[in-house]
Amino acid sequence: xxxxxxxxxxxxxxEAASLELGCNYSxxxxxxxxxxxxxxxxxxxxxxxxFSGDPLVKGIKGFEAEFIKSKFSFNLRKPxxxxxxxxEYFCAARGGSxxxxxxxGTGTRLxxxx
Amino acid sequence: DSGxxxxxKHLITATGQRVxxxxxxxxGDLSVYWYQQSLDQGLQxxxxxxxxxxxxxxxxxxxxxxxxxxxxxxxLNLSSLELGDSALYFCASSVDxxxxxxxxxxxxxxx
Lengths: 114, 111
What we know:
The complex is a heterodimer. Chain A is mainly β. Chain A has strands spanning 3-5, 10-14, 19-21, 24-26, 31-38, 45-50, 56-58, 64-68, 73-78, 87-95, 102-104, 108-113. In chain B, strands 2, 4, 5, 6, 9, 10 and 11 form a seven-stranded mixed sheet that branches. A four-stranded antiparallel sheet of chain B has the order 1-3-8-7, with no helix packed on it.
């Protein structure tokens, strides 16, 4: 069955610490991958996406993610977090061409301490 | 502001009742998606419409139904409500498959 797993449910970091949030997917065939962020009191917004090409994807606000096909992973990274990165982060996947159904992970709540 | 609007923002109702949630997509977006976000299950895809037609179905209960109207707004109807239906319901829209733009959500509380 298609699935997206985020193993870290809650992460607490101090400012300037490095961040890596795990995301693993289970999909047959081509897959498109996304990271969305939901800041407190705000709507979900796209951080970055991977469709094809360079497996290292750069997104907004200094975030990046690496697609590792052999590990079925799409981990989100940021070298130095800020207090304003406190939010909930969702990994999502969609089967390639012609598939409209998105599957989201359960989310990771990140709290950054000032 | 994503350009997607949802009404109402909050809804409190009783078990057994029926409610309708409304979503207006961004101008020009033909696709509308509905999601349910609960504490224990994360963000669950319910259903997607494209230009008035149902395109994909996820974990949507039979008590729930949706439609997209000619002006592209969409409604999610929830009936015979149960306590467990209390959740945040998000609508998203997109012009293509690259990115979804999410609305602010409707918080439903079933008492």
